[in-house]
Each structure stands twice: as C-alpha cells, then as structure tokens.
Amino acid sequence: MTDTSSPESPENTEAPGLSRRRLLGTAGAAGAAGLALGAVGGAGVAAAVNSDGEGPAALTSVGATEVMFHVKHQAGITTPLQSRGHLIAFDLAPGAGRKEATALLRRWSHVAKQLMAGRSLAGDDTEVARDAGPSSLTLTFGFGRTFFDRTGLTAQRPMELDPLPDFSSDHLDPRRSNGDLWVQIGADDALVAFHALRAVQKEAGEAARVRWQMNGFNRSPGATASPMTTRNLMGQVDGTGNPKPSEPDFDKRIFVPESGRPAGQEWMAGGSYAVVRRIRMLLDDWEKLPRGDQEAVIGRRKKDGAPLTGGDEFTEPDLAKAGPDGQLVIAADAHSRISAPEQNGGAAMLRRPFSYHDGISADGTPDAGLLFICWQADPLRGFVPVQRKLDRGDALSRFIRHEASGLFAVPGGPGEGEYVGQRLLEG
Ligand SMILES: C=CC1=C(C)c2cc3[nH]c(cc4nc(cc5[nH]c(cc1n2)c(C)c5CCC(=O)O)C(CCC(=O)O)=C4C)c(C)c3C=C
Ligand SMILES: [Fe+2]
C-alpha cells in the first residue's frame, strides 16, 4: 500500500514557468527525519531550493519532504500525521451538477499536484508558502452521501455511505456536519497548509460553497528526541493501537478491495471511508481528575502509554488480568478495552486525528478537543460497532462530547494523468 513512486518521477520535476522553487529530487539532501517520514508513510523525499536567483537556500528535512499525488491510495491516509491540518467541507452551489463537479475535481487535483510537489500556482499565487518546500503537504478528497443525488450519480453511491446511526451521547451540529465534498489538508508547516486551504477554497469558485471548516494540529516533527506516537490534549499517548501497514490484514481493513465491488461502484476500488467527528474535550473536568483515575479511564499509563497490565507502549494489554483485590487491572469500562478489536469482532480503523483549539467559550472553558478522523474499508466494520459500544459504557464519555460528524467516500489515488474521482465522474 505504500507509495513506491520515485522522487525522480515526472510529476516531481519542475514544469517550466510554473515553479518558483526548483525540485532537485535528491533524497540525500532531505536528511534523516525526512527519510524516516518517507519510509513510514510512503512519502517520497525531495530537496528544494529557492530559484529566484538569490542562491540556493537549503531546506530542512521537514520542508523538503514530499508526499506523492499519483498513488494507489490517496495521500493523507497512511501519511505520518502532520503538524497542521485543515478540514473543509463544501456543498455544490444551487444549479451545479455533475459537469461543474467534474471541472472542480479537475481544478482541485491540479492544485493538489502542484502544491504537494512544492510548486507555486500559475497566475495569482498568494505567495503565502513562498520559500518553503512541500513540507509533507497532502490534500485528500472525499464525497459525502448528498453528492450523489446532486450529480445524478445515485446508482453509484455505495451503501457504506448510508448515514451513521444516532448515538445517545451525540450533540451534533448539523451545520458543521457532513457535506457534498470534503477536503483534508495536512502539512508540517502552518503557512504551507493555509496556502493550500485558500487555494482549495478559491478554486471552488461558483461551483461549491463552504459548508464548514475546522483547523487542527499535532506535534511538530523534531519536537521530541526521536519520533513518537503523538499525544492528545488530555495528555495521553494516542495512536498506539492503530493497525500497522506491516500487518497482513492492514489493507483489507483500511482500503476497499480492488475487485468484487457491486456494479457501478468499481470507482471506490483502492479507496477508503473517512469518519470525521469533532469531539470536544471537557478539559476542566478532566484535569481535576487525579492521574491514577485518568489512567484508569483509558487503561494505559499517561507517562508512556503502556497498558496498566505492564510492559511498554507496544506491549499487548492483558485484558483478563486481575489485581490482588480480584478486580480487573484494565477496568471493564476502560476506553482502550472497549475499543479494542478483540472486543468488537475484529472491528478496526486507522485513527489519524488532529487536535483543535478554537479559543475560550463564553463559559470560560476551552473549546478544544480532537478532530477525530478514522479510515476504514467499511464503516460498519470499523467506526460504527466500536462507537456503539463506547456509547454504552466508555469511562471516557464523561469527559468528551461529539459535536459534529461526517462520513465521506474517499476514492483511490488518481493514476498518472487522472484527476481524483475521475472513475466516478466519467465512469
Ligand atoms: C469509535 C471510535 C473511537 C472514538 C470516537 C475515540 C475517541 C477518543 N479516543 C481517545 C483516546 C484514546 N483512544 C485510544 C485507543 C483507541 N480508541 C479507539 C477508538 C475510538 N476512540 C480505538 C479503536 C483504540 C485502539 C484500541 C486498541 O487497539 O486496543 C487510546 C489508547 C492508545 C491508543 O491505542 O491509541 C487513547 C489514549 C480520545 C481522547 C477520544 C476522544 C476525544
Ligand atoms: Fe480512542
């Protein structure tokens, strides 16, 4: 599933007249951190220099790391978490249909390919990302359930896009939920990410209107002595139990198979379904909880993310282990127990979240939490059964509130010369 495209491939070479930054395609100059990112998440690595005639400006490995656009699965799914994220959902404008949507996906794909390669945009580029390299920029495009009726493609709509069930703990704001189209943007530089967000918004033109937009962040690469699983705003190591690309059933769990799709839905081969939840953390309540109680809520140590049954972060939790008092060491309502695949008939998902902080609410509490994004081949074998179970008895639920929700079909990566979604829109 990893991207095997060479950094020397044509899409990484400068198109004359388009670029202000020259891509050299020399992985060696990218440095150890960039190479590590490439190895883990399938990112190609290129070094870039300023080409304004002011002499080469060496980029750090962070700036130079490039993620490929033309790949089997869209970028931004198995790509290592970036430090900046923007999520933006659009509805097609009144009167816009398949023709306008097709033109829009073509434009967005062009923008994504240029910017992910560290090139500027022809015409009136805002220059916000000037001097920076690609910085692991990814743009990932998805279709919401409502897209299909509006474009006359109802017969091509997969069952997997059926609405998510209601959960008793939901406090969902419909204006910040769902949407015809969804774009996830990630980058390891805030300006590179913002530049891409503006470009996506501007290219929407008359075809689509912004429905909602959210901003998130993760730890910056290089902030820790060595690459580590990220922490969320509750201070927990978050991501340990994720399926690993090296596991034999990883592709089966996360990506739609290449064959065996119902007629009309072949276009989703190699794609994945993204469930997006804006989950607010009730941090004032959480932070009052003593550390031992916080650890019991998750079933893992805060310090290093190790299970309470011992070992290190990646030791398998012993869910049957009882303490001297006869009680389960990892409590029956611990979040990591309830969400574990072995407790859910094997249901698994790839969690790839961003934290968010949208300031302080009128009541003085931080409007902060997790832009929870999870990827799976089928939400009914990933998010839905796990969330159903969490909804019934997760110790964490006292400290979080699901405020917005979305479900998007993210098609496979575009082949060379293709735009994202072409197999749906022209199939
Ligand atoms: C329905 C899916 C899930 C939601 C919603 C969810 C919210 C949520 N989780 C944390 C913090 C942690 N989650 C952890 C593990 C974990 N969580 C889910 C699913 C959902 N979480 C799964 C499938 C797992 C993995 C279970 C396993 O494989 O054993 C952990 C432990 C460390 C880890 O594995 O990542 C933490 C910490 C928060 C804060 C949150 C909502 C804000
Ligand atoms: Fe979780």
TrEMBL record:
One of its GO terms (cellular component) is cytosol. GO terms for molecular function: ferrochelatase activity; heme binding; metal ion binding; peroxidase activity. It is found in: Cell envelope. Its EC number is 1.11.1.-. Residues 297-322 are annotated as: Disordered. Residues 229-413 form the Dyp-type peroxidase C-terminal domain. It is an enzyme of class 1 (oxidoreductase). GO terms for biological process: iron import into cell. Its cofactor is heme b. It holds the Pfam family Dyp_perox_N. InterPro entries: Dimeric_a/b-barrel, Dyp_perox_C, Dyp_perox_N, Dyp_peroxidase, EfeB/EfeN, TAT_signal. Keywords: Heme, Iron, Lyase, Metal-binding, Oxidoreductase, Peroxidase, Signal. Residues 74-218 form the Dyp-type peroxidase N-terminal domain. The keyword Signal applies. The keyword Iron applies. Belongs to the DyP-type peroxidase family. This is Deferrochelatase. It comes from Streptomyces candidus.
